[in-house]
Amino acid sequence: MHRTFYQYLMTQRNPDSTEAVAEFANNAFFDQSFPKQSQDFHEVSQYLELNAGYLPSMTIFDDAWQAYLASEA
After folding, report:
1. Would you give the distance in Å from CA 9 to the centre of its chain?
2. Is the separation of the CB atoms in 43 and 21 below 8 Å?
3. Where does the record place the YozE SAM-like domain (predicted)?
4. Do 21 and 64 touch, CB atoms closer than 8 A?
5. Entry pTM
């Protein structure tokens, strides 16, 4: 993997979209504590579970993580 999850997620930003992953990316962009350098599923997952009130469901993260892995393959 070359990109961090955050770098991948930023490619999904779209302020005009109501898609769940785009909204996740838009909100993560404004989250100054997001683990931007991480490529570790557990680190990012734990951070989101404890700190990301803007993420309505961890399923959105799981889907985004799978897309991230596919993009890095």
Report:
1. 5
2. no
3. 4-69
4. yes
5. 0.92
